[in-house]
Amino acid sequence: MELMDQVIQGISLYFTFKAVLMVAFGVVAGILVGAIPGISGVMATAVLVPLSFFMPPTEGIPFLLGVHKGALFGDSIPAILINTPGQPAAAATALDGYPLAQKGEAKSAIQMALYSSSIGDTFSDIVLILAAVPLAALALQFGPAEYFALMVMGLTIIGGVTGDSPTKGILSALIGLMIGLIGFDAVTGAERYTFGILSLQGGIGTIPLMIGLFAVSEVLIQAEKKNSLLSVRPPTAHLKGGRNLKFSELKACSRTIARSSILGTIIGAIPGTGASIATFVGYGAAVNASKTPEKFGKGSYEGVAASESANSAVAGADLIPTLTLGIPGSATAAILMGAFLAQGLRPGPELFESNGSTMYAIFALLLIGNPIMIVAGWLLTPVFARVVTIRQALLVPCVLVLCLVGVYTYQGSIGDVQLALVVGVFGYLLRKVGIPMAPLVIAFIITPIAERSLKQALILSDGDFSVFLTSPISAGFLSLSVVVIFYGYRNQKFLRSRKDQKT
Amino acid sequence: MKYRTAELATGIFFLIFSVFYTFYLTPNFIVNPLLDTTQSTMPWTLRPEMLPHVTIGSFAIMSLGLIVHALRSNDEAPFDFHFGPSLKLIFLILLTYIYVYLLQIIGFILLTPAFLIALILLFGIRDWRMIIGVSLLLPLFLNYGFLYLFQLILPEGSLWS
């Protein structure tokens, strides 16, 4: 009965015409920004997040959910139209999408991406809804020791499987922890690493850090390209005309979409694995299962469907650890969590207890976002061809100004803008040496919660560290962390030996 | 420069940073409000230095791991660094720092067009209609968009107030 009350309360509070309109606005903005060549879905989310600060939570949260969905699909558009995937996850879409566009079937290829993306996303949203309540209920049974061990396990998984080396992934997570330690210590009230700067007492701002790491550093990566590449307009002759996707073509790919949606959801639910792994696993499985594998890579609708449904299935799945455990599943989920925090909502198991109605409203809005994405994608298809042809030499400066203005709007502070710039240069240097950004941001976000749990557990045990090993659940999580690190190194060794064999 | 050399340099830099963090930053920049007597009775695990020590210890170990990995690697891939574009990048970063610094003095609406013109020229576009159009329209759109939609005033500049 209480559950029904919360659902009704959530729907009456959030499920208004204005909220649905904000989802639509978020979806359209996410698709359009994500469609700009060289801008990844993560960067699109980071650039658009500041707009939500001017909205009340009842509008800001729907907007953010829309952006999350739209940006992920938006990535596939430049991949299909001009063979420029915004991030590695969209590279598999480009393998078949671009040959289709060259054959004059760009419109139908985008529609296939749109439908398979929406189906994959809907499937993972349903799994999220079904899994969230029992998982959060389970997490609520955990004491501080178990919760801290769970955070350590989440961080180890993220660090161990993100990027090309577990060492770099873990180093990234540790840098995030160090940045997260700046400010006041929750237990003793000690001031840590503030260097007497007043604005650092509350810690490093989430938004300057995220925009700096994901958007400013990406601008610097793009700016590094030769001017001849930046100022050239991509060829567009093959984008004119085209036909709509036939229902029979979509039906022929239904098995592939279902398979990739399941794979994407499973992979996406594991923190840190991300869309790129899901996409290539989904694509590989589709090649293996296909009766015509020779068509893949030469313009196969099945290829587009396989990669896009797996890619979008990650969107809902990576919210499972984010919303239920408070551990962001991916970089996009971390940005979203940062924005939720700015809206006064702390995702995690307690949110189901303290603000259950908001959670059910989020679920409803996630589901309504998918048909909205189909309509928006369908209507905006003619616009995409124009968006992808904008020269990067014009876009890069505009995006940089947008990022800086976005950071300024967070608290109206120039100090934040300076911080974002410093973080952006730092992020750029880390990316140059192959240190992934996602573990850093995720570790930064969870540091205050992890430290609070750690200190609570230690206070209860009079400062005895063995409390983490005497609780079977906590010991289990920590053992699993060791296994994950071991697996990460073994996997790296295997990949290196395979690379050596090839060369 | 080879990629593994860059990895080696990163590992060494991280290791030096770990030493700096442990022996300079942590002792000097953790200000504990508790009395010395209270602190001395407090278990080490509850002190504010505990988590920074554990973190930096792990960081140093992983940095050593990175150094060992780079030394053992036979990867001959080159490090993606070119002097020409990097000079452009340094100029871009400098220009942006100057822009952010001057924002408070000159203001968003007057400074941003000049900043955009400089950047677009830096990236090789010479079509002046396009340059002027973008550099004037974007700041105007952002300034009035934020003002009327979100009631937020972008920096106006202390020079004019």
Can you walk through the features of this model?
The complex is a heterodimer of chains A (503) and B (161). With 503 residues, chain A is mostly helical. Chain A has 24 helices and 2 strands. A two-stranded antiparallel ribbon of chain A has the order 1-2. Chain B has 161 residues and is mostly helical. Chain B contains 6 helices and 1 strand. Chain B has helices at 3-29, 36-41, 50-72, 83-106, 108-122, 128-150, and one strand at 30-31. In chain B, α1 runs antiparallel to α3 (50-72), α4 packs antiparallel against α5 (108-122) and α5 (108-122) runs antiparallel to α6 (128-150). The termini of chain B are far apart. Classes of the chains: A mainly alpha (503), B mainly alpha (161). Chains A and B meet through α9, β2, α11, α20 and α21 of A and α1, β1, α3, α4 and α5 of B. β2 of chain A pairs antiparallel with β1 of chain B.
